[in-house]
Design goal:
Helices cover about 30% and strands about 20% of the residues. The two termini are about 15 Å apart. The chain has one domain: Rossmann fold (3-Layer(aba) Sandwich). It has about 250 residues and is α/β, with parallel strands linked by helices. It has seven helices and eleven strands. The chain binds 2-phosphoglycolic acid. The site of 2-phosphoglycolic acid has 7 residues, from loops. 2-phosphoglycolic acid binds next to loops. Pfam families: Glucosamine_iso (PF01182). One of its GO terms (cellular component) is cytoplasm. Keywords: Carbohydrate metabolism, Hydrolase. One of its GO terms (molecular function) is glucosamine-6-phosphate deaminase activity.
Length: about 250
């Protein structure tokens, strides 16, 4: 089920999420953490890096699994998720690159399941905490509307809206790859705890659709209602279109 936390702004929400991640790392030094790319979680990663430095926290046994990777983008391209995760997670948190997994996304991958990544996650003991953002169309990872809720890691096709939204990281929309390898919604639902962050009015429709019942595959975020422990961290603007009174936690 989904619980909702509404914070005054992104700074407060990111601080809470960073604190929760740090608490988990202290309690379970070999925790397995699922990390998202996109602008939304970056501040939480920065704040977590500060806490790790301040407390000299042991990060040597952690494992990280990224949600997704573009197909046909070289790993040394600054917007490949290998590069983004290295820049925002691996280096600031001071972990060894061998502790950080990002899906391989070979140029010749075709649409369909990619089993090895889910097997790697299972072999690591499963994900303790999965961080998520959400797209304007409700996608989580690159699970676009229509993706089956039980999907494993697979090759997915980006919608035009997603390519447009992500074109801000590239010189043009044509440069945004149309295909990506993404953890499936089924993969995400296996995590022991999931945290979705969303800030700003551009996300308000996606949040309303994710909390609208019943869950439907045309609204990927609504699949999180099937998760055993999922909390949405929202600012007022992202929460504006839904009455979450009965879902709220302190
Ligand atoms: P954003 O992307 O964090 O850059 O808004 C979220 C997403 O598309 O999942």
């Amino acid at each position: 089920m989904v619980k909702v936390k509404i914070l005054p702004d992104k700074e407060h929400a990111s601080e809470e999420v960073a604190q929760m991640m740090h608490d988990l790392i202290v309690e379970k030094p070999n925790a397995v953490i699922g990390v998202a790319t996109g602008s939304t979680p970056e501040l939480a990663y920065d704040l977590l890096a500060e806490k790790i430095k301040e407390h000299n926290t042991d990060v040597s046994q952690l494992q990280f699994f990224a949600l997704d990777e573009y197909i046909a983008l070289p790993w040394d391209h600054p917007e490949s998720y290998h590069a983004v995760i290295n820049r925002t997670v691996t280096v600031p948190l001071g972990v060894d690159p061998s502790q950080v997994h990002v899906p391989e996304a070979p140029d010749d991958a075709t649409e369909g399941p990619i089993r090895y990544y889910d097997e790697q996650i299972e072999a690591a003991g499963g994900i303790d905490l999965q961080l998520l953002g959400i797209g304007r169309n409700g996608h989580i990872g690159f699970n676009e509307p229509g993706t089956p809720f039980e999907s494993p890691t697979h090759v997915g096709r980006l919608t035009e809206m997603t390519r447009q939204d992500n074109s801000r990281f590239f010189d043009s929309v044509e440069e945004v790859p149309p295909l990506a390898v993404t953890q499936g919604i089924g993969t995400i639902l296996k995590s022991r705890k999931a945290i979705l962050m969303a800030f700003g009015e551009a996300k308000a429709d996606a949040i309303r659709d994710s909390l609208a019942e019943p869950p439907a595959e045309q609204r990927p975020g609504s699949g999180l209602q099937l998760h055993s422990d999922c909390v949405f961290y929202l600012d007022e603007a992202a929460a504006a279109k839904v009455d979450c009174e009965e879902l709220k936690v302190d």
